[in-house]
Amino acid sequence: MARKVTILDIARHSNASASTVSLVLRNRPGISVATRRRVLDAAKALGYRRRAGASEDAERETLTIGMALRARNRPPDVGLPVVNPFYSWVMTGIEAAARQQRANLLYATIPVDDANRPLDLPHQLLDQPLDGLLLIGAFADDTIAEVTGARPTPVVLVDSHGGPHAHDAVCSDNRGGAYEAVAHLIRRGHRHIALAGLRQQADPVFAERREGYLQALREQRLPDYTTEYDAVPGDVDAAVSFLRRHSEVTAIFGYNDKFAIAALRAAWQLGRRVPDDLSVIGFDDIEPALHTMPPLTTMAVDKVSMGRLAVQALLFRLAWPDATTSVTQLRPRLIERGSVAVR
Question: In CATH, which superfamily holds the domain spanning 174-300?
Answer without folding.
Answer: Response regulator (3.40.50.2300)
